[in-house]
Amino acid sequence: MTKPRIGIIISTTRQGRFGERVAGWVAEQAAARQDFETEIVDLRDFPLPFFDAVASPAYVPIETPEARKWANKIAELDGYVFITAEYNHAISGVLKNAMDYLYAEPNRKPAAFVGYGAVGGARAVEQLRLIAIELDIVPLKKAVHINMEPLIGMLREGKDFADYPYLAPTVTTMLDELSWYAHTLRAGRQSAERDAA
Ligand SMILES: Cc1cc2nc3c(=O)[nH]c(=O)nc-3n(C[C@H](O)[C@H](O)[C@H](O)COP(=O)(O)O)c2cc1C
């Protein structure tokens, strides 16, 4: 059986973003694992206009090439790690816009969260969990929060993740949980597809 494939989603696109460093750090730890495969999914590679379709993709599929490219990528994955900043106590606008383009593709798949910001991106992560539920994604409790001290240290003082060794074990715990859900939910989806056939 093939391994589940997990997308590590970089959800900010601005120049000089920190999200890219966080994603690389998580991807490096994930690459050492045997229980699933990962790939970076960078929203810069999926530029989408502001959502202006006639209806939600729940009712009317959006068939523009850029929308299909994004939705197909999400559909081919078995789970997600959202790397999320906090912009004005919320997720980035570019991530919310991208989420609005989805409907069926992430259903019954798990999502884990890595937040960064003054309070570890906690407010953005909580909002993202709510959005996930509406898209029938299974949002996980185990998360990684990179708060003010390491964020400032890495942004302004030339430090790196290795200077904050308490962070890496939280990634392991999160990925362990994500793995369980990715395997379990994939088996459930496959079983449901067999029953429906
Ligand atoms: C538009 C904007 C709004 C921000 N709002 C918050 C905020 O509400 N809470 C917070 O902790 N940090 C906030 N920040 C600071 C970010 O945590 C910090 O800039 C972080 O590096 C942003 O992620 P990025 O580098 O991947 O874009 C904000 C940054 C930007 C650009």
Mean pLDDT: 97
- Note the overall shape: globular
Report the major sheet. Answer: 5 strands, parallel
What is the level-2 CATH architecture name? Answer: 3-Layer(aba) Sandwich
Strand order of the largest sheet: 2-1-3-4-5
* N-to-C order of helices and strands: EHEHEHEHEHH
CATH superfamily: Flavodoxin domain
C-alpha Rg (nearest Å):
17 Å
Portion in helices: 40-55%
CATH fold field value: Rossmann fold
What is the CATH top level name?
Alpha Beta
Ligands present: flavin mononucleotide
Q: Which class do the helix and strand fractions yield?
A: alpha/beta
Strand content: 15-25%
C-alpha end-to-end distance: 20 Å
**How many domains is the backbone divided into?**
1
- The number of strands is 5
Low-confidence stretches: none
Number of helices: 6
Written account of the structure:
The structure is a single chain. The chain has 197 residues and is an alpha/beta fold. Helices cover 43% and strands 17% of the residues. The protein has 6 helices and 5 strands, in the order E-H-E-H-E-H-E-H-E-H-H. The protein has helices at residues 19-31, 65-76, 93-100, 122-134, 148-156, 168-196; strands spanning 5-10, 37-42, 79-84, 110-116, 138-146. It has a 5-stranded parallel β-sheet, with helices on both faces. Strand 1, helix 1 and strand 2 (37-42) form a beta-alpha-beta unit. The longest helix has 29 residues, at 168-196. It starts with a strand and ends with a helix. Bound molecules: flavin mononucleotide. Flavin mononucleotide (FMN) is lined by residues 12, 14, 17-19, 85-89, 117-118.
